[in-house]
Design brief:
Helix content: 55-70%
Radius of gyration: 18 Å
Number of strands: 0
Distance between the termini: 37 Å
Number of helices: 5
Length: about 100
C-alpha cells in the first residue's frame, strides 16, 4: 500500500482484502505521508491484535509492533532522503561545491 501511495498518491481500497478496509480508510484520513512521521492508524494495531499468526516465542503487543513498523519506515525514509540529497547535491565535497557553483 505504501508503494502504491508513493507511486500514485492514492491507495485503491478495492485491491485489498475487506478486513483491511477500515485501516486503509483510517490511514487515508490521517494521510499516508504521515506514516513517515510516526502517525500510524490505530486500526493497523487492531488488525495485528486480531491476527492469528503465532510466533515461536510470544506475539508482540500491538503497540510494540506498531512502534517497530514506524521505526523501519523512518529509517528507510531517512535513507531515501540521504540518497536524494546525494543525487541532487553530490556525494563528495567537490561535487557539492561544483553543484553550488552551477546553481
Amino acid at each position: 500500500m505504501i508503494a502504491e501511495w508513493l507511486e500514485t498518491e492514492h491507495v485503491d481500497i478495492e485491491e485489498y482484502p475487506v478486513r483491511f478496509h477500515p485501516a486503509i480508510k483510517s490511514q487515508s484520513i490521517i494521510g499516508w505521508r504521515h506514516l513517515f512521521a510516526g502517525r500510524l492508524s490505530q486500526e493497523w494495531l487492531l488488525l495485528q491484535e486480531e491476527s492469528t499468526t503465532v510466533t515461536t516465542v510470544r506475539k508482540r503487543h500491538s503497540s510494540v509492533w506498531g512502534a517497530s513498523i514506524i521505526e523501519v519506515l523512518v529509517v528507510q525514509f531517512i535513507k531515501l532522503w540521504e540518497l536524494r540529497n546525494e543525487e541532487v547535491h553530490g556525494k563528495t565535497e567537490e561535487q557539492q561545491e561544483q553543484t553550488r557553483k552551477l546553481s
